[in-house]
Structures
1.
Amino acid sequence: SQQGEEDPQALSIQEGENATMNCSYKTSINNLQWYRQNSGRGLVHLILIRSNEREKHSGRLRVTLDTSKKSSSLLITASRAADTASYFCATVSDTGRRALTFGSGTRLQVQP
Amino acid sequence: ETGVTQSPTHLIKTRGQQVTLRCSSQSGHNTVSWYQQALGQGPQFIFQYYREEENGRGNFPPRFSGLQFPNYSSELNVNALELDDSALYLCASSPGLAVNEQFFGPGTRLTVL
């Protein structure tokens, strides 16, 4: 079963605009990760944020984590057509299974 | 450094058949995890192997089984295929058991007719 939901399910923006995706999860976590997937191929790791962190940056990416609300957001600034992909959040539980539990994903379309 | 590779890329089987999917982990990685991704969904964890032993399993029936070899490559076997087994199968490798960044292969697209 999926850990949680991502919002929106689909997002279409113009090149140069910012894209924000949200992720909610259900259980307490050790860390939360964001992955990108192009056209049903393999996933590429973007960024990891630990449960004791609130914000993290990597290039044009900014991730926030609110453990009290069990939610995270991914901001992509100054988007490019090449950012068109599906984006998934994935959580790692702080107890038990050492595997990623993925959300349902946000499909981002960046129009040139 | 070689990344994670999977074979075959695509596969078509009929209901009731058996299939074996293969994964070669990234150099230096001793942990392999397998995921099933149905169309339009996020990946779901099938199981994980660490140093040739199963180290956790998701909500998949016993007809999903696996192996990890001494060189840390891995196989996913599915018996008695069902139509709902049609999906993209992804393997991911990582160094050790801590679930930080996982390195995914390109996946095998399985179609069951």
2.
Amino acid sequence: ELKVEQNPLFLSMQEGKNYTIYCNYSTTSDRLYWYRQDPGKSLESLFVLLSNGAVKQEGRLMASLDTKARLSTLHITAAVHDLSATYFCAVGGAGNEKLTFGTGTRLTIIP
Amino acid sequence: DAGVIQSPRHEVTEMGQEVTLRCKPISGHDYLFWYRQTMMRGLELLIYFNNNVPIDDSGMPEDRFSAKMPNASFSTLKIQPSEPRDSAVYFCASTSSGGSSYNEQFFGPGTRLTVL
């Protein structure tokens, strides 16, 4: 059974600082996704990572994938308040379209 | 594109009543997923369909839950009878197995269900 772990679960950080969220998964997969969820809202797709070494960047967020280590990271650079949200990673199973989601990381940016 | 559409957005009902949640996937998508989100259990996959056929319903909590997809543009999730522990936000998502979406799932706005 595919398991996906995120850490930390909660993260408070000051504006302007850098930090990284980690996503570990238990079995081989060829696709990993990052989503953002604002309070009371739906999930919004941020990144799709499809191969070992893949790196995607959008503004202050950068995601990377290491399939050998079964690890993805979401790096936040010079955080701003607008990035406060819950971030989920999700991993695709082999041979099907099902995604297994991590527990989420609730990020709070403090001015 | 209008995105995934769900209705109602909010539902408040009393224990024992039947609840029906509705979803319209993005046109052209051949997969549809139903999720439930709570603080205690996080985001759980309940069931998913491919070309209107249920593929995996192992996440459906019990027989009180049922889901149908009569055509490519409509799905329902029904709870009968409802219980307070069913209170949650229910999301519908869809994706395409072809094209450039890379199986990226697109989520609807969700239905917030409260069972009193």
3.
Amino acid sequence: EAGVAQSPRYKIIEKRQSVAFWCNPISGHATLYWYQQILGQGPKLLIQFQNNGVVDDSQLPKDRFSAERLKGVDSTLKIQPAKLEDSAVYLCASSFGQGYNSPLHFGNGTRLTVT
Amino acid sequence: KQEVTQIPAALSVPEGENLVLNCSFTDSAIYNLQWFRQDPGKGLTSLLLIQSSQREQTSGRLNASLDKSSGRSTLYIAASQPGDSATYLCAVKGGSEKLVFGKGTKLTVNP
């Protein structure tokens, strides 16, 4: 089974520029997550989708971050404008369902550096 | 608010040693606890998932235990190998269904 695909793998931008990340989950997985992992920290949930609806975006900085999951399959996460503190690895994950014991499968992430 | 703590932050052991990684969480009302492995520049790989009704799970040389009442979990790695070198993350899922992660333990197994 193909894993969670993410692109690009690396991105370097200047502050105040915009950037977008793409994620394609495992086929058949209804739930999709975006996590932010700052160096030395554990991942922090930014947004969770169930099909194409948002389940939780309480930790998403909505003034600069946006995400969408059209047609309930792949998803994009956008930052506009970027700040220095947005430098992190952005991880996408998917799970079969929203059930409590449905394990998460992670992609390799996109490493963002904001200069 | 759920908080997850992992001790130690880093651990270096010689090959062949048995070792224990620790994870503690503040809110015992959890649905499950997962242990993940993260290699440099990679995403997370799920190692073991323990449901709240379970006490332990085993996979090969890995054994994870859960004591929900005390808010603790341990990951036991038997006969460690250099290939086990990675960062190990613990995460708990609670009522909000949000997975809350610890900061991880960076393990180095020396040949």
4.
Amino acid sequence: QVQLQESGPGLVKPSETLSLTCTVSGGSISSYYWSWIRQPAGKGLEWIGRIYTSGSTNYNPSLKSRVTMSVDTSKNQFSLKLSSVTAADTAVYYCARIFYRAFDIWGQGTMVTVSS
Amino acid sequence: QSALTQPASVSGSPGQSITISCTGTSSDVGGYNYVSWYQQHPGKAPKLMIYDVSNRPSGVSNRFSGSKSGNTASLTISGLQAEDEADYYCSSYTSSSSLFGTGTKVTVL
């Protein structure tokens, strides 16, 4: 079955760019929307954005100026870049597949801490 | 873009039924039949329980059901079991964005 795995640095310095990749295994990345979602410790889920395999994107308006998503169909991967990070961006970051307008498959999540 | 409003906590005894509400606006919950619900146990990734307001993915117990009226969606858990104790989130999908609810902690007494 399809599985997702997030990867990237667990520690990012303030003002730098957070970069994460989600690798899709057990199925093709094509013809689906894919999303990034984050969750600060002890808090709720926050939608970051979504990307279609054509490269078309939608971002959370509150993060739009700092977010860039991309997709590499040859590697079955999609990626997130979040620029100018602060401590408020410290969270568990999840990647997820969108199917029937819902997030049906999730990665296990990766903790990213913003600290000098 | 404000989070959808859910009660912070709901509790019930084993075997009882509970309902969690999710209130949005006519621009999200009320405007689309694309409400989904997620169950999250501590330290785990969320799990899809309901999609498109009232549809259950394969493998999800039929004790979970969803509905919607106006700008408010609801998740009902019937025959409450100890394993249902978790956090629950609603989500609304629109043509340009998605939005999550504030989350509800379900406690089985």
